[in-house]
Amino acid sequence: MCNSDSPNEFAQKLDNFIDSLPNKKENLIAILHYAQEIYGWLPDNVQWHIAQKLDIPSAKVYGVVSFYSYFTMKPRGEHVVNVCMGTACFVRGAEKLKNELENQLKIKAGETTPDNLFTLETLRCVGACGLAPVMIVDGEVHGKMHEPQEINEVLAKYRPEG
Amino acid sequence: MKLKDTEELNVLKAQSLKLIETRRAKEAVDTKNAPGLVRHILVCGGPGCHSSGSPRIAEVLEEELDRAGLADQIKVFEPGCFGFCEKGPMIQIHPDNVTYCEVSPEDVSTIVQEHLLEGKQVERLLYMDPNTKERFAANIPFYNNQLRIALRNVGYIAPENILEYIAADGYQALAKVLFHMTPLEVIDTLKVSGLRGRGGAGFPTGVKWEFTRRSEADQRYIICNADEGDPGAFMDRSVLEGDPHSVLEAMLIAGAAIGSSQGYIYVRAEYPAAIHRLKIAIDQAREYGLLGKQILGSDFDFDIELKYGAGAFVCGEETALIHSIEGLRGEPTVKPPFPAQKGLWGKPTCVNNVETLANIPPIILKGAEWFAKIGTEKSKGTKVFALAGKVNNVGLVEVPMGTTLREIIFGIGGGIKRHKTFKAAQTGGPSGGCIPTKYLDSPIDYESLMAIGSMMGSGGLIVLDEDDCMVEIAKFFLEFTMDESCGRCTACRVGTKRLHEILQKITEGRGTLEDLENLEKLCNIIKDTALCGLGQSAPNPILSTLKYFRDEYVAHIVDKTCPAGVCKSLLKYEITDKCVGCGRCAKQCPTRAISGSPKKRHVIDQERCLKCGACMEQCRVDGAIIRH
């Protein structure tokens, strides 16, 4: 039995997607991508539900989820701030940028602010090496982030007014 | 509209030529005397330009053209990466053949008014050579000595329109393979051409195809490895976004040559734009009957499905990638059996990298001899490099194999930023090594890079200068491989962790000379015993820096200093007698570690100093604050 306490429509959407696939088990990763897209993360009960639906052990689903860094088992904040840790950004000061963001947001990379507004993460290379070091907020790239003031201004754009 | 035969493809090509002929003009057109001139404006849509606002520029251009009443005769396109990321966002105007650099949305009205309406070039937006101050409208020095084969259509055709690809000889190589060549002739052509895998290891592509074909089976699979994971490399992404059909066409050719009816593209989920373009390309190819049953009226059936990666560097390794497509954890398995014998779902599988595939249609069309003439004795053709780091011209460059590092970094790359001194070039990403100054003039190919302790890898080329600490760089890559180690074999899982710990110790000034011996010993053990390429090559960044920059390791250990001034634990800031006592540094210090009376020499309390360097940045007196 699925003990999902998420909105029913999410579960329904996920089920419809799984039902539409011809080969279910081999599409586990595609299913997880889809589930993360609608839920925002992959909570235990969703993993369990997928395992039931595919008739595979939930340990196997967990094994795959925990293997790939793209999948997250922690809910994210409203805005996801990523620091590019690719080599080009690293040699142009990505570490400093990360420290400054940790300072300003008062959280460590991988954490979410208590008000649930920002999650800080790192990723590897977005291909904008000409703009290094870069930070990415909700998919939008901000380049040449050297000064604390500039970083603050970018974050301010995502904070609610007032 | 399904194309029924080659004839229909050729008719479509002839009809489509007009789509791109405006951009093909070799000679610049005199724009003053050409009222009503049909023009194409290309706005670079590469990752760098896109991030710095090129979509907005295209939008404003459309609006301004509309306002000026030029919308009918001047069309705006957003093709893939132009390559010269440093000067982005860039736009090109054809047939004038004029390129503008670092264009902002505010510049658009000037371009429309002066260039398009009055026929005058906007001088200040043309590329300026920093040394001679000469301006270039075309033939920008960055592109001299480059040869675009894999990137031939990138930045030139509109990637979301199959007709533009067809106009640029697209799918002609497929037609040739289907109707004028036998599978063995195709494989022979690749073997003679000397094409080798561009994903890193450099295995001969023709031989790989031959092995896969020779394995008896009722089904074989073609996989395009588009899981570009090297941090600092974005050439595959640029091909996928700028010329997706070239990858599809090459996979079709592989299918016909190897005897496969199903292909998969394993693409990073982190590349949404590439995925979007691939989806469009696959739909269009199906619509034109270039994917599906009885392609171009032949008896060849082939289809392609997209599979998404989920952020695991190890999935660039063939066997791990195959497991990931099967929906499993992306862990590698022992070879043999090779994928060519037993791959996806136990069937013979050929895995090729994006850039490798992009080279194949031109090889088929122009012949193996044409390709084999380019490059060095054992490495043929060109290689795309993502040139980045402390170099003036960051960008995507494609050069013939055998070009020297000096030509790439100091010629095309325009030298080191802020006139600093070159220290090393890092190639091959986390699997590669650092190449010191003395090898700047050695021609780059697979063998020469291996010989000097690095490797070609996928093509990341990061330039390091005097301010980069080589121990820190080695540690950076080890942190990467440690994170990305899948954990299956002990040598890699535990070994990379131990290596990282030793490096950590050294950068914190706690290292001993014995640690260096242990580092070397452990590196060699991991190289010999790790299960897959990730583990086997993980020690390379350490081994190459130990080989060429041993004195930096020794400085950390014996002198307890970091010569590049990077490793914080080893730094010390001091105020000298040049201090005038202005107090700027004291105000800036986050821990209030600086004290002193006005107009008197200040001092830093070393106990409280965080070594952040804020004081030094604030100080206006040369030499008043020193770091050592």
Task: Give the tags.
heterodimer; A: 162 residues; Glutaredoxin; 2 domains; 4-stranded mixed β-sheet; elongated; B: 628 residues; alpha/beta; Rossmann fold; Ubiquitin-like (UB roll); 5 domains; 5-stranded mixed β-sheet; 13% strand
Produce the secondary structure layout:
The complex is a heterodimer of chains A (162) and B (628).
Chain A: H1 8-20, H2 28-39, H3 44-54, H4 58-67, E1 79-84, H5 87-91, H6 94-105, E2 118-123, E3 135-137, E4 140-142, H7 148-158
Parallel strand pairs in A: 1-2
Antiparallel strand pairs in A: 1-3, 3-4
Chain B: H1 6-24, E1 39-43, H2 47-51, H3 54-67, E2 74-77, E3 91-94, E4 98-100, H4 108-117, E5 127-128, E6 135-136, H5 162-167, H6 172-180, H7 183-193, H8 205-214, E7 221-226, H9 235-242, H10 244-258, E8 262-267, H11 272-287, E9 303-308, H12 318-325, E10 349-353, H13 354-366, H14 368-372, E11 382-389, E12 395-400, H15 405-412, E13 422-427, E14 433-436, H16 446-451, E15 460-465, H17 470-484, H18 490-507, H19 513-529, H20 533-537, H21 540-548, H22 550-559, E16 573-575, H23 584-588, E17 594-595, E18 603-604, H24 614-618, E19 625-627
Parallel strand pairs in B: 1-2, 7-8, 7-10, 8-9, 11-15
Antiparallel strand pairs in B: 1-3, 3-4, 5-6, 11-12, 13-14, 13-15, 16-19, 17-18
Helix pairs in contact in B: 6-10, 6-13, 7-8, 7-10, 9-10, 9-11, 10-13, 17-18, 18-19, 19-21
